[in-house]
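Predicting structure from sequence has reshaped protein science. With that in mind, we have picked out one protein's residues alongside their backbone shape tokens:
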Amino acid sequence: MSDVIEVKFEDLGLTKPLEKMTQKELREMCMEKLPQITGASGKSKEELVAIIKELFGIEDTEPTPAELNKENILKLKAQMRDLKGKRAELGNRKQREIMRRKISKLKKETRRLAKNV
């Protein structure tokens, strides 16, 4: 007799899509309901989602715009952090205002990249 447990995707009782679940939720689900997946506590969210999809034979859908532009978004956010640090050091109100506007434009750009392709 084998100790293999058959689990169907519908039996997991998911309330939201895998991509929308947090890393903590995915880890708990893997440890409680999916004993086939080992080392879940040390894996990232992307790895867990990929393993679960592979286990159940789910085809990946098209990547979201945010996933396509992830590198650009991260670069812009790094720029924003740098500008925020410089803004804190500035004493002149006019220059602080200019920095604030630049940061605001970068925020809008990151939102635009995440929204559109």
